[in-house]
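Justification of computing resources. Each target in the renewal requires a structure prediction run like the one illustrated here; the chain below, 245 residues long, is used simply to show the kind of job we budget for.
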Amino acid sequence: MVSPAPPVPLPGGIGLSRLAAYDWESADGVCGGSPHLHLVCTEAYVVTGGRGAVQTLSPDGYRDIALEPGSLAWFTPGTVHRMVQGGDLRVTVLMQNGGLPEAGDAVFTFPPEILADPERYAAAATLPPGAGADTAEAARRRRDLAVEGYLVLREAMVAGDDGPYRAFQDAAARLVRDKVPAWRELWRAGALAAAERTGAQLDALAGGEPAYLSEATARQASPTRRGGFGMCGRRDEYALPGPGM
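Resulting C-alpha cells:
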C-alpha cells in the first residue's frame, strides 16, 4: 500500500486569503476595514479588482497608498494599516509566517483603555460564530471601535506627534507577550522549516544527490470558507497545509 504524500505548504510557509473590502462608512466618512498592526508578520496586498487605498502609519508618517488592479503594496511589522474601499476593491492577501496571524499576530487600534485590559480587548475583538446579521453587526462595531482609536493616532502623527502611535505599539506588544512561545513553535514548524528544507536541498544538489526531486508533486485548493468577516472585509479562506500538518 502506498503511503499518502505529505502535505505541501505554500512557498516559504506563507498564508493566503482573498478579501472584498468592507463598504461600511466610518465616522470620518471613509468606507473600509478595521485599522490594526501585526507584530511579527509582513503583509502584502495584490489587487485583483476595483479601486481603493491602504492608509498606513509608521515612522515614515501617514501615507495613503492608492490601490488599483495590478497594484502591489506591503507593510512590515508595526505598521498600522487600514484598507479603504474605493469601489469593489478586491485583493489577494499574502501573509508572512502562515498560521501566526490566526494565532493572534494582529492588534486592533482600539482606544487605550481597552488595550490596557486584556479581557476588554478580547471581548471587543472576538466575533460570534457564523456569517449572519449578528456577526456582521459585531464586525461593524469592532471596525468602528478600531477607527475611533486610529483617528486619534493619525491626527497626532499628521501634527508631528508620533507619541500616541508609539504608545499603541507598546500596548500591542504587551497584549501579545504571553503568546510568543506558541508563535515560536508555529514559526519553527512553518517558515523556518521551509527555509531549512531549501538549505537541505542545496546541500543535496552540491553533493550530487538530488534524490529529493523524486518527491515532486502538485497541489490545488479552493476556498473552504467564503464571505467570512475578516479585519478588513469579507474574507475567503483556504484550508492549506501549515505548521504541524
